[in-house]
Amino acid sequence: AQKVTQAQTEISVVEKEDVTLDCVYETRDTTYYLFWYKQPPSGELVFLIRRNSFDEQNEISGRYSWNFQKSTSSFNFTITASQVVDSAVYFCALRETSGSRLTFGEGTQLTVNP
Amino acid sequence: DTAVSQTPKYLVTQMGNDKSIKCEQNLGHDTMYWYKQDSKKFLKIMFSYNNKELIINETVPNRFSPKSPDKAHLNLHINSLELGDSAVYFCASSHGTFRTEQYFGPGTRLTVT
Prior knowledge:
The complex is a heterodimer. Chain A contains no helices and 12 strands. Chain A has strands spanning 3-5, 10-14, 19-21, 24-26, 32-39, 46-52, 59-61, 64-69, 74-79, 88-96, 103-104, 108-113. In chain A, the strands form 3 sheets. In chain A, strands 2, 5, 6, 10, 11 and 12 form a 6-stranded mixed beta sheet that branches. The termini of chain A are far apart. By secondary structure, chain B is mainly beta. Chain B is built from no helices and 11 strands. The N and C termini of chain B lie far apart (34 Å).
């Protein structure tokens, strides 16, 4: 059965610090997709990135970067030079070929203090 | 223009009542979902429809019944509401069932008193 673990329940940093959010997943499928979503205090869920299991190339988008390592079943998310607006709950999620359900991790609450 | 919309945004009701939450998407997607987010922020899928056909039906009390009148709409009806139903309910949609990301509505906060 698929499972996503985000071991960091809460992280608190000071503005301009770099922060990495960890995500470890379990799946028996060889083909799957991984996602990150952001849930700011306003409550909506915002899609950030999708990565398929055959593409281990790291991705950078502005201050955001993602490190996918199949060997360790991890898909970590780094925010460089964090800002107060980055404060949110961040969810990692997994989708297998065997079903269309999206399995979410328990989320990491990131607080960026000024 | 709102991509995935839900009404109402807040719903406060008493135990035993029946209520509905409506969801509409204007993204042209063929798959829609209902998720429940509990007080600890845990997100869990409840139902999914693809082209109006039910494809995911998790272990949810049968007091919850989804209805998809067309590909752009997925409503959630809840009978005999219980205190434990209090949560935020999110609707989502995607193009297809596997490769693409899901886009979420703003959520409906249901409070049962």
